[in-house]
Amino acid sequence: MATHVRGVVLAVMVGIAATACGPTDWPMLGFGPGHAGLSPDTTVNTSNVSTLTVKWTAQPPTPWAPKQYPNLFSSAAVAGGTLFVGSYDGNLYAYDGAGNTNCSGTRKLCAPMWRATSGPSDGLKTPVVVNGVVYVAGGNGLAAFDAAGSTNCGGTPKTCAPLWTSGPLGLYVYSSPVVAGGVVYVTSDNNSGSPGTVYAFDAAGNTGCAGSPKTCAALWTASLGGHPYGSTAVGNGTVYVTADDNQLYAFNAAGNTGCSGTPKTCTALWTAPTGDAADGTPAVVDGVVYVSSGANSPSGTLYAFDASGASNCSGSPKTCNPLWSAAVDGGGRSPAVANGVVYLSTDAPKLYAFDATGTTNCTGTPKTCSPLWTGGPVWGLNGAVVANGLVYTGTATGLSVFDATGNMNCSGTPKTCSPLRTVNTDMSNTPTTGLALANGMVYFSVGYLGAYDYQMYAVGLP
To answer: Is the pLDDT of residue 192 over 50?
Structure first.
């Protein structure tokens, strides 16, 4: 089985409003700024999930020199029927999410409707689409493009120039951007004495922006004590981010509390120990922030902290202890939270389901929890996505779907579950990106450096 390359694999998306009865988007990592991973899409259910199949695929058009083969895709963002992905060739690509425009063949192979240079290299960050603008972190900076592929776009094939850029942000940008409250948040890794930085930009490209082409300065920045490999989560007026110094950091999202100077810099409202490096992205739901650690270890831990930094917190500077924690086999990265349950896929390979409130199957002081149920096989690099009572997660060969309630295809004590449906890809390569779910379609890409099946897959009903 292929080995995870730290910093190469990241992702999923964040969301714009959608209705259960109409078209659904998946505009960023984890559907929304809090990264809950819950979609309102009701197209697939327990009655028809067994018919899921590959609908279309796509490959990045440009080979990555000096390795002359197609390159990794990021995970996708979906808005208005268009699918946006980054690629290791440094480009942002826009595809018809339904697999109609620029698609052909018995099993459709699709070409992009337009493309844009997202950075000088590594484009493996999940794009974000909000208010008609798609934001992507590539290479060492942030760029904003017209999501319709009209403004600043032209030529054949159509290529787009940015509406604005951030300029360089340290040495590497490993995280996917997040948009919340008119602000774009992204982290960079300086790989030096100050290894990580959080940046906040005006999403409209107005405040702190000037020149032609337009370049924007940060509204505020904050230094981290370690390298950030996951993305920020935003909720409760707070920005949450983890780093490999075994810490969860919480910052004031508005750049007010704990912030001063020109240019403005911020210090953490509070921090929390995660026991091991936390490579994943936090999830913030109902006043609780969930974080997993031990992503590259044989065992890991899922933590639940008070998102307000009040319960189990003390000292100056303030440090917080978990409300509850749970040990898991294998490393996991990004939890999903839906209907009172936290789902975490690990590279054990196992899917875990825990009571999000830390009540059922939880005891002791400090409180520790055991799972409501487990399932497999899965692969933890991808995280989980929840929609309409189903949990979707990647495997070493494709995609598996479980009953989110832990009832169907489940048995035993402790309870273990098998997938309701598994869809395999063309090759036995681990999906290297998270899942996106919109309009009844599940999107993910596969491939590792050194492997040749670099494709985006779109899976849906026949």
So the answer is: yes
The pLDDT assigned to 75 comes to 87
Q: Is residue 20 part of a domain?
A: no
CA distances from 447 to 60, 73, 319, 453 (A): 12, 8, 40, 5
Q: Of the segments 67-81, 103-117, 164-178, which one has the largest average pLDDT value?
A: 103-117
Domain count, the chain: 1
Q: What is the pLDDT of residues 443-457, one digit of tens each?
A: 988 765 444 556 889
Closest CA to 250 of 267, 225, 264: 267
Q: Look up tokens 């440094």; give the residue.
A: 90
State the residue range of the domain holding 387: 38-460
Place of tokens 């917080």: 320
| 317: preceding bond cis by omega (within 30 degrees) | yes
Structure tokens at 172: 């590497």
Whole-number pLDDT of residue 202: 98
Please report, for residues 100, 242, 294, the alpha-carbon distance to residue 245 in angstroms, rounded to integers and kept in the order given: 46, 8, 12
How does pLDDT run across 307-320, given as a tens digit for each residue?
Answer: 999 999 999 999 99
CA distances from 25 to 20, 344, 432, 435 (A): 11, 23, 22, 13
Distance CA 17, CA 392 (A): 21
CB contact at 8 A, 4 and 105: no
Residue 420 lies in a domain: yes
Which pLDDT score is estimated for 2?
A: 30
Q: What is the DSSP letter of 4?
A: P
Burial of 224 (0-12, 13-18, 19+ CB in 10 A): buried
Residue 143 belongs to domain with CATH number: 2.130.10.10
Report the distance separating Cα 222 and Cα 310, nearest Å. Answer: 22
SS3 381: helix
Q: What DSSP letter does each residue of 387-449 carry, written as one string?
A: ETTEEEEE-SSEEEEEETTS-TTEETTTTEE--SEEEE-SSS--B-S--EEETTEEEEEE--T
Residue 174 vs residue 358, higher pLDDT:
358
| 138, 297, 351, 410, 427 from 4: Cα distances, Å | 20, 12, 18, 30, 17
CA-atom Rg of the chain in angstroms: 20
Residue 254 lies in a domain: yes
Residue 44 lies in a domain: yes
What is the CA angle 379-338-247, rounded to 5?
65
- Give yes or no for a contact between 245 and 196, defined as CB atoms under 8 angstroms apart: no
Question: How far does CA 286 lie from the centroid of its chain?
Answer: 19
